[in-house]
Amino acid sequence: MTGEPQRRATYPPILELTLARLREFVREPEALFWTFFFPIVMSVAMAIAFPAGGAQTVRVGIAPGSGSDALRQSLSSARDVIVKDVPPHDQLRALRNGEVHMIVEPGNPPTYRFDPMRDESRLARLVVDGALKGAAGRQEPWRAKEDLIAIPGSRYVDWLIPGIISLGIMNNGLWSIGFMTVQARLRKLLKRLAASPMRRRDYLIAPVLARLVFLGPEVAVPLVFGAMAFGMPIRGGFISIALVAIFGALMWGALGLLMGSRARTFEAASGLMNMMSVPMWVLSGVFFAASNFPDAVQPFIQLLPLTALVDALRAVVLEGASLASIWDELAIMAGWTVVPFAIALKIFRWR
Amino acid sequence: MELAVRCQNLQKRYGDVVAVDGLSFEVRRGECYGLLGPNGAGKTTTIEILEGLLTPDGGDVEVLGHYWKTDEQQLRQRLGVQLQETQFTDKLTVEETLRLFRSFYDRGKTVEELLALVELESKRRSWVVKLSGGQKQRLSIACALAGDPDLLFLDEPTTGLDPQSRRQLWDILTRFRAAGGTVVLTTHYMDEAETLCDRVAIVDHGHVIAEDTPKNLIAALAAPKVVVHEGTLEDVFMSLTGRHLREE
């Protein structure tokens, strides 16, 4: 015996398996990049596309003709209006591409050309109409006092960041666990492990535990970024946010295991994971509110794993909701953890 | 004498293909037993049934006096297994891989002892992906030996290795046997069977067509050819089947 038995002892299998998974992960630089930088890149892109401060500008195209100079002058002096000359043959294209939100043709009265299905076009019509009538000498019966405020937490960007964090928890859980499992199967490593006395449950729990290690920075980085760059409010306490994130990570870990439990090729596994996750990108209210979908499908949408995670995370981060008030989301997530894990363990293909 | 392996009338089919067809043999404790035969003869299927990785369609298997159905966990603690084509995780080191496998066993050698046993001390901090074929195979044997097994299963342990690496592997197995271990291996190399095995079963089309010590098989069955040529197991196989061993 040498003098260092402690150093040479091994940890319990579950811990050794978790460590192996973590080592494998940190030795893949690409995996680290996607985990930590993707959410930031997404948030920045969204922040640029949907500016947090200032009113939305209205872009108005003016058709040539007598009186177009007067129109241009009246509109240019209006607030938040950008004016552009658009020749007649180019009108439809400019509207379609969103270069302008509406076209004004000079005349008496002038003609407004716009698509009422588009919110920004209806807004443009109101702004333009007010500006032109004002310039034509309309008397306002009264002018309301305006109290302009910005409520952090109610802006799109505030709403979006918890959604993007949830999306990250989903993608990292599904793809990293699903793919590593398929890879181990392809390399016949699963078969070799099955021939050892390793408890099979340990092998399935380990990658889910390993996910929790990186969950901290994965959630904290975009939150802190959101707070510093956009003044996003973080109203929930550390424990509630952490708990929701852990529930989410365990759930997506279990679902990743399930997706990878039988697949013999990467193609088969990605097919399954896309089939599972892509509809949720749309349905679960990450980028726009899930309430846009009809009432008939709402019960279904509310039961989706990503919806439960997004709603719970938004509630704790933006509203400071108590854990008691999101118990139904937590219960849905627990269900989506326990059942898929049990099925995965049952049907897992070790060869 | 106590038996390490007893298998009787083993049957396994994959759809229409019969892989193992009424195969029977016994391995004694302390013995090195070889399953010799061409590719597709059913060697791998047989050894995977013995390892408890496949369930036979028919027949009886007893390993170290236990049955897979009732004593799986107990058996796995006492067996060492090396499979064909296992690729360990690329970006784990030799030491980390051994540590992982060692953690599965209740008893066994230390990681340090295992590294010394397979002469990989100098590679302990190398990633698996950087190892040569022979080093990878030695790592695989070290993982199989991690629990200090009573019985070691090896499936074509030296296929694709250079002569020096094969020799190193044979030395490791010789040391394992000297310590009282039992070995069951499959191979299609004649010299390997002649060097390592006490007894050999020649397997073709899913059953045993001959079984004895390599020496006796050669004496009994190798057709005496031209005088300069000493009989080998290759000749034995030829005389039994009219085919060469490594024909596909």
Report what the structure shows.
The complex is a heterodimer of chains A (351) and B (248). In chain A, helix 7 (156-186) runs antiparallel to helix 9. Chain A has 351 residues and is mainly alpha-helical. In chain A, a hairpin with a 5-residue loop joins strand 3 (102-105) and strand 4 (111-113). The two termini of chain A are 38 Å apart. In chain A, 38% of the residues are buried. In chain A, strands 2-1-3-4 form a 4-stranded mixed beta sheet. Chain A contains 14 helices and 4 strands. Chain A folds into 2 domains: 12-49 and 155-347, no CATH class; 58-135, D-Maltodextrin-Binding Protein, domain 2. Helices cover 63% and strands 5% of the residues of chain A. Chain B has 248 residues and is an alpha/beta fold. Chain B has a single domain, classed as P-loop containing nucleotide triphosphate hydrolases (Rossmann fold). In chain B, helix 3 packs parallel to helix 5 and helix 8 packs across helix 9 (233-241). Chain B is globular. Chain B contains 9 helices and 9 strands. Helix content of chain B is 35%, strand content 25%.
Features:
heterodimer, A: 351 residues, mainly alpha, D-Maltodextrin-Binding Protein, domain 2, 2 domains, four-stranded mixed beta sheet, 14 helices, 4 strands, 63% helix, disordered N terminus, B: 248 residues, alpha/beta, Rossmann fold, six-stranded mixed beta sheet, three-stranded antiparallel beta sheet, 9 helices, 9 strands, 35% helix
* Assembly context of the chains: heterodimer
Q: Could you state the order of secondary-structure elements of chain A as H and E?
A: HHHEHEHEEHHHHHHHHH
Overall geometric form of chain B: globular
- SS-based structural class of chain A? mainly alpha
SSE arrangement of chain B, N to C? EEEHEHEHHHEHEHEEHH
Largest interface, Cβ cutoff 8 Å = A-B, 27 and 32 residues
Helix coverage percent of chain A: 55-70%
Strand order of the largest sheet of chain A: 2-1-3-4
Unreliable residue runs of chain B: none
- Rg of chain A over CA atoms, rounded to whole Å, is 27 Å
Largest sheet of chain B: 6 strands, mixed
Q: How many distinct helices of chain A?
A: 14
Beta-strand portion of chain A reads: under 5%
In whole angstroms, how far apart are the ends of chain A?
A: 38 Å
Strand tally of chain B, please? 9
Question: What is the spatial order of strands in the main beta sheet of chain B?
Answer: 5-6-7-3-8-9
